[in-house]
Amino acid sequence: MGADLISRLVSRRYGKRSTMVTTNVGIGAWTDVLGDAAVASAMADRLCHHCHVLRMTGRPHRIKDLLPEGRGGAGSGGGD
User: Fold this and answer.
1) What is the value of pTM for the model shown?
2) Given this model, what pLDDT does residue 68 score?
3) At what angle do helices 2-13 and 37-48 cross, to 10 degrees?
4) Nearest to residue 39, comparing CAs of 8, 76, 67, 80?
5) pLDDT for 20-30, tens place per residue?
6) ∠ CA(4), CA(20), CA(65), 5° rounding?
7) pLDDT digits (tens, 9 = 90+) for 62-72
8) Which of 1, 3, 39, 78 has its Cα between 20 and 30 A from that of 32?
9) For residue 77, what is the DSSP state?
């Protein structure tokens, strides 16, 4: 259900409007999240056509005050 709604939104905006997507899931894992390889592939094709992909690494800003910079744990900047 959710994958279908997102797919329709992307399809309606494709070629007409700019769309920004943020995710902590890599494009290669969208099939696992959406549950449909065809839908995931079509969305990736439409979103990545004429796009700029920005990969951001490091500690999430929203937890900046939870752990000291040098300490391990979630979000310690180990990369993907």
Assistant:
1) 0.58
2) 65
3) 30
4) 8
5) 888 888 888 98
6) 110
7) 777 776 665 55
8) 78
9) S
φ and ψ at residue 34, rounded to 5 degrees = -85, -20
Q: Distance (Å, rounded) from C-alpha 31 to C-alpha 34?
A: 5
Q: What are phi and psi of 56, to 5 degrees?
A: -110, 135
In angstroms, the CA 7 to CA 44 distance is 10
Chain length of the chain? 80
SS3 53: coil
Task: Write down the pLDDT at residue 80.
Answer: 47
Positions of the chain with pLDDT under 70: 1, 67-80
**Assigned token pair, 57:** 């690494």
Residue type, 77: G
Residues 6+ apart with CB under 8 A from 19: 10, 13, 47
Residue 12 token pair: 């309606």
